[in-house]
Amino acid sequence: MKRLLLSFFLVSFCALTFSQSELARARADKDWGYIDTRGTWVINPQFENANDFSEGLAAIRKNGDWGFVDNTGMFVINPQFASANNFTGGLAAVKTGKDWGFVNKSGKYVINPQFDDVMDFSENLAAVRKDGQWGFVDKDGKYIINPQFDKVTSFREGVASALKDKKWGFINTSGMWIINPQFERVGEFVNGLCVVRQGGDWGIIDKKGSYVVNPQFNDMKDIVEGLVAMRKDKEWGFCNTAGDYVINPQFANVENFKDGLAPARIGKEWGFVDSKGTWVINPQFDHVNAFSDGLAAVKKGKEWGFVDSQGKWVINPQFDKARDFNKGKAMVNKGGQWGWIDKTGSYVINPQFPNAFPFAISR
Q: What is the total count of domains within the chain?
């Protein structure tokens, strides 16, 4: 009997844990709540606004103020803030009055509200704006880089881009210029390389600021899977990080490679090419998303469906809107209501929500 009871409680606990490991924010009428993967309300709709869960907590707005709930809907930090961001690295940016600061998961200010604007922590530093200038603080609120820049981005690979006197450059975590401001636009460093625009043309630099690809393109996207989408005159193609053409410019538009395939457009129709520029799926769609979880959402006429990597319809076009598959489920909209389908096109959650967002880990 004891074994049976123990087994029952273990199964019940596992089921509860599983059901609450992924939650999606969804709206019913005017209020937001959170559903599990069966479409059951785990946190009943009661909030004026809501964010995804991050690090076990979700920022929500109730009666005009923002606070934080756990995955059972219990308030961990009572609504009291004018605005709030998600938790990142154990801290969340929150706004009191007109000033931003950072709180821990107990709701205690670790960095008192004092900034005009902030970004979330990245690589243990947060960008903050004071009196119109941006700098960076550590998790104790100490300035590591004093406010002195017109704009900045968060740190990535130990480097952040910064705007000074209308030119972009790059700084290290001490605030020293490692690449002096000289660019009109910049991307993000990826494996030590970054796309930049100088003199109206785009090229690629390394972390010393040396060009590995001289400025010569009219436009470029960020480096993905070792390839860069670039535009020469009016046509798009792809080059490698040495600047060699991998796919000659020939398309009206392209998106970055994902899982070995890139969306490309000829005229008004989209298809997919491989890394050699060969059409794997001929241009025939009005719009496409990149492949995700083995399928791509594509639009034919006024309706969306899903194709496999050979271009075969797996789920015929029938939806008003569609989002990418993730872990075997995709959000779809029918008649103005959102639901979720599996890879056979069967509804796992019937369309019933006027607004919703993908599932996120809630623990």
A: 2
Phi, psi of 116, deg, nearest 5? -75, -30
Would 322 be classed as within a structural domain? yes
Could you give the CA distance from residue 250 to residue 270 in angstroms, rounded to a whole number? 13
Q: Is residue 65 part of a domain?
A: yes
Domain with residue 41: its CATH number is 2.40.128.630
Task: Tell whether the torsion through CA atoms of 63, 64, 66 and 72 is positive or negative.
Answer: positive
Half-sphere exposure of 222 (CA within 13 A, CB side): 9
From 74, 92, 115, the end of a domain falls on 115
Residues 266-308 have pLDDT tens digits of 999 999 999 999 999 999 999 999 999 999 999 999 999 999 9
Residue 154 CA to residue 178 CA, distance in Å, equals: 16
Q: Output the pTM of the full model.
A: 0.89
Question: What would the pLDDT profile of 77-112 be if each residue is shown by its tens digit?
Answer: 999 999 999 999 999 999 999 999 999 999 999 999
Q: Determine the longest span between alpha carbons in the chain, in angstroms.
A: 79
Domain region containing 71: 24-115
| 18 Cβ contact partners less than 8 Å away, ≥ 6 residues apart | none
